[in-house]
Amino acid sequence: MIPDLQSSILCDDVRQERNGKFILIGLFDAIAARQLPIRYPRLFMVTRWCSGEGEFKQRTRILAPDQSAVVAEGRDIPVRLPSPEATATNVEVFMNVVFKEEGTHWVEILLDGDLKLRYPLRVTRASRSPASQEPGSTEG
């Protein structure tokens, strides 16, 4: 039985307690960059599958705003659900992801090659605050 994707979350870091619970740090759906391109040092993707049974392969990718160029793509990750009541939580890390342009990028989650979820990740230019102005600047 094909599982349902219960959640997919982007965050800056993930920790796991001794009891097995995950702690997600710095959840986000947008990246504000002072300049482009920007290199995002660590980007974590947490997915949780449920209501299925069997073994499957998950693949995650991030597409550029043109929706065809691949910015980052993970490896196949096993999803093992021994019973319909079981859940599978996967934590994937992407290192040094380079976003070359601003605009709406797309996160895609595939299961056995079939697209299960697609959602936006906005990359914008950060506005300069008065505190970050260069000395002598009168912008505001």
Description:
With 140 residues, the protein is mostly beta strands. Residues 132-140 have low confidence and may be disordered. Strand 9 and strand 10 (114-125) form a beta hairpin. It has a single domain (4-126), classed as Macroglobulin (MG2) domain (Immunoglobulin-like), CATH 2.60.40.1930. The protein has strands at 4-16, 22-27, 30-33, 38-50, 54-63, 70-73, 77-81, 87-99, 103-111, 114-125. The radius of gyration is 18 Å and the shape is globular. The strands form 2 sheets. Strands 3, 5, 6, 7, 9 and 10 form a 6-stranded mixed β-sheet that branches. Strands 2-1-4-8 form a 4-stranded antiparallel β-sheet, with no helix packed on it. It has no helices and 10 strands.
What tags apply to this protein structure?
140 residues, mainly beta, Immunoglobulin-like, 6-stranded mixed beta sheet, 4-stranded antiparallel beta sheet, 64% strand
